[in-house]
Design goal:
Shape: elongated
Structural class: alpha+beta
CATH topology of the largest domain: atp-gated p2x4 ion channel fold
Helix content: 25-40%
Order of helices and strands: HHEEEEHEEEEEHEHHEEEEHHH
Radius of gyration: 38 Å
Low-confidence stretches: none
Mean pLDDT: 88
CATH superfamily of the largest domain: atp-gated p2x4 ion channel domain
Oligomer: single chain
Length: 388
């Protein structure tokens, strides 16, 4: 208790003021200068040179449009000889900041609404009508059960459903990909950017680009890094994957455009940097529901007025264009803030040296005696003298 009282008394009734002490020691002096140099290197090298702490910054505002080109030919027993152009394999025709290229498909032609046997699985295989429930439609059903058990093939019976018949059978994905020639298709990416704080705008089709050049160029990271036309196979390859493997079940590729602009330099030096990566993780050890696919249908009526449709389960690669970036320009306010912060950090050198000198060195008690001077209350000392 006495110790606590003394500490409380010292806290309430004592005051300390800084005292400058010059310590003539090579060890302490070198340590102090070394810490100061480290702080200066951090402020100048990292804050001002690397991070450009003298600049005001702004984030990019962007818009993207795409245009695909390429023609493929197929000749199958289902479709016969057929030419595929942009209107066939780009679905939908326009998307926001992305482009879907169909590379593989399962086509079910001439479907009409009617009654037909369901595709066999553990919930639809039956032996009699008692195994089928009228009006039942499971999550993965292709239609609504009628309650009848009908012949699916010579050896198997399944529950009858009211659905679009014949029912799609997607148990096997075509290999190789139906439109494997899509590897040589190209896509033109047009990107406009704006930094509103600096009222600076630019696009990835650079001012020196001509129409003739644009019709013949092809992006290459080494030989032509600013051409905005990309070959699809090269994009997937740059992301570290095989186009032909990816085309079978589809996937998602990110086309990243980075605009890092130093507006203290010429505007012509603000240039886009392209990079590519696969966005849908492909883990071969857990390959459940891989790739990317969806269904769409084309409807028509025959001469009798009966409605038909052609159902397509489309597999393909979606290219997402991701634009990011930061622009910087000199401004006095962040400059002064960072200079003030750097000056304040120099005080760390004094604090660190004080800790080492007063608590870690062998002569710490000697230095502490020189550092601190203890002064009693003048009025109390004068009163004691008068009492005597």
């Amino acid at each position: 208790m006495a110790g606590c009282g003394a500490a409380l008394s010292a806290f309430l009734f004592e005051y300390d003021t800084p005292r400058i002490v010059l310590i003539r020691s090579r060890k302490v002096g070198l340590m102090n200068r070394a810490v100061q140099l480290l702080i200066l290197a951090y402020v100048i090298g990292w804050v001002f040179v690397w991070e450009k702490g003298y600049q005001e910054t702004d984030s990019v505002v962007s818009s993207v449009t795409t245009k695909a080109k390429g023609v493929a030919v197929t000749n199958t027993s289902t479709l016969g000889f057929r030419i595929w152009d942009v209107a066939d394999y780009v679905i939908p025709a326009q998307e926001k900041n992305s482009l879907f290229i169909m590379t593989n498909m399962i086509i079910t032609m001439n479907q009409t609404q009617g009654l037909c046997p369901e595709i066999p699985d553990k919930t639809t295989v039956c032996e009699s009508d008692a195994n089928c429930t009228a009006g039942f439609a499971g999550t993965h059903s292709n239609g609504v059960q009628t309650g009848r058990c009908v012949q699916f093939n010579k050896t198997l019976k399944t529950c009858e459903v009211a659905a679009w018949c014949p029912i799609e059978d997607d148990s096997e994905v075509p290999r190789p990909a139906f439109l494997k020639a899509a590897e040589n298709f190209t896509v033109l990416v047009k990107n406009n950017i704006w930094y509103p704080k600096f009222n600076f705008s630019k696009r990835n089709i650079l001012p020196n680009v001509t129409t003739t050049y644009l019709k013949s160029c092809m992006y290459d990271a080494v030989t032509d890094p600013f051409c905005p036309i990309f070959r699809l196979g090269k994009i997937v390859e740059s992301a570290g994957h095989s186009f032909q493997d990816m085309a079978v079940e589809g996937g998602i590729i990110g086309i990243q455009i980075n605009w890092a602009c130093n507006l203290d330099r010429a505007a012509s030096l603000c240039l886009p940097q392209y990079s590519f990566r696969r966005l849908d993780t492909r883990d071969l050890s857990h390959n459940v529901s891989p790739g990317y696919n969806f269904r769409f249908a084309k409807y028509y009526k025959d001469l009798t007025g009966t409605e038909h449709r052609t159902l397509t389960k489309a597999y393909g690669i979606r290219f997402d264009i991701i634009v990011f970036g930061k622009a910087g320009k000199f401004d006095i306010i962040p400059t002064m803030i960072n200079i003030g912060s750097g000056v304040a950090l120099l005080g760390v050198a004094t604090v660190l040296c004080d800790i080492i000198v007063l608590y870690c060195m062998r002569k710490k008690y000697y230095y502490r005696e020189k550092k601190y001077k203890y002064v009693e209350d003048y009025e109390q000392g004068l009163g004691d003298q008068m009492d005597q």
